[in-house]
TrEMBL record:
The gene is OSJNBa0033B09.26. The keyword Metal-binding does not apply. It comes from Oryza sativa subsp. japonica. Gene3D superfamilies: Transferase(Phosphotransferase) domain 1 (1.10.510.10). One of its GO terms (biological process) is cell surface receptor signaling pathway. The keyword Heme does not apply. This is Wall-associated serine/threonine kinase-like. Keywords: ATP-binding, Kinase, Nucleotide-binding, Transferase.
């Protein structure tokens, strides 16, 4: 349910419940057990962090749709890479470190662009 006006304030909407769980470090508590595995925990955290950035109240603090699509594309490639079959956490860590560095570069190089 997207809204629950009967519950506590931080549980009245799906987005508030999600953000509250993220702040309290309870991400895995709100993700279905059929979805989470040891192999995809890092990817789930990256997707959740991206989702929380998309829910920023100030629009200028949200990532552009292009940034979101690029991040999903990179995450998909990480999970499909043959090295990920052998040691997915190591591959994910290495790739996300690279992705993070790349997004910092693209943010600084795009700072003059109009969105």
């Amino acid at each position: 349910m997207a809204f629950n006006l009967e519950g506590p304030e931080n549980e009245r909407s799906l987005s508030l419940s999600f953000l509250c769980a993220m702040e309290e470090g309870r991400l895995m508590d709100i993700i279905g057990h059929h979805i989470q595995t040891d192999e995809n925990a890092g990817v789930l955290e990256e997707v959740a962090n991206l989702a929380s950035r998309c829910l920023e109240m100030i629009g200028n603090n949200r990532p552009s749709m292009r940034d979101v699509a690029d991040k999903f594309g990179r995450l998909r490639k990480v999970m499909q890479h043959p090295w990920a079959q052998h040691d997915p956490e190591e591959m994910l860590f290495t790739s996300l470190t690279f992705i993070s560095a790349g997004s910092n570069l693209s943010t600084s190089s795009n700072s003059g662009e109009q969105h």
